[in-house]
Amino acid sequence: MSTQVPRRRKDPLVKPYLKWAGGKRQLLPEIKNHLPVNWGTLRYYEPFVGAGALFFDRQSRRAVINDNNAELILTYRVIRDNVDDLIDALNAHRGQNSEDYYYRVREQDRLLDLFAELTDIQKAARLIYLNKTCYNGLYRVNSQGMFNVPYGRYTNPAICDEPVIRAIHRYLSHENTEINILHGDFATAVVDAGRSSFIYFDPPYHSPDNTNFTGYQAGRFSEAEQERLRDVFVERTNAGAKCLLSNSDTPFIRGLYDDERFEIISVRARRAINSDSAGRGEVDEVLIKNWR
User: Fold this and answer.
1) How many whole angstroms separate alpha carbon 4 and alpha carbon 23?
2) Cα 86 to Cα 124: distance, rounded to the nearest angstrom
3) Is 282 left (phi over 0), alpha (psi -120 to 50) or beta?
4) What is the pTM of this model?
5) Cα four-point dihedral sign 208, 149, 70, 281
6) What is the pLDDT of residues 205-254, one digit of tens each?
């Protein structure tokens, strides 16, 4: 007899609280067509979680999420552990929002001694505030890891979407939910994923002409990193995990995953963020999965 606990009803308010380059909200219907039929019984892994569109849509009870962006992961942890203080801090930002105030807040990561004194709550609120008020909702840092997006001049930005933040808090902290929130390398995040696991890989996309946006952090995701990711994909396949990966539709990516065990599916996606305007709009992408 199965001992599986019935799934809780999904909360529609549990959805991305940040706008993130490469976010998958508009591609969700296509991705959901290619999930394992038994995904609800599997432990969910997302080692490049970003804004978490698929993670929040699935609302798995057992999950491991990870990102190499430390400030991003800090926001997840603060929403889980200190939601009331975070909402107070966001409301304080909302009350002071102006172009001058924005640039003073943005400047904080250039003043290293000052930034080091900020609490985790203050750092998380700062990132969310900047994301909600910066130009195009774009998270981008320079080579020194400093946030460098100009002010967006929105009429009434939703700096504190309290119902959404509280719903995410309830999901992440629920007594019947086991969500591990990690900051580190993608390979480490999935090292224990095996036959009872499903991994969704959504890395910074391959861009042979360097036109795709990859400014999430000071380092860049090179072709050598794409090759290392392929090796992890193969390793987890050999361990029995179900794996699904998104990436650009380029000859390099198709060559990396040219394996009879893998299915490469062409999809069209709309991209609004790109360093080159020619790279915006409808673009070719692939979904790669290791089961048929």
Assistant:
1) 31
2) 8
3) beta
4) 0.90
5) negative
6) 998 875 544 444 545 799 999 999 999 999 999 999 999 999 999 999 99
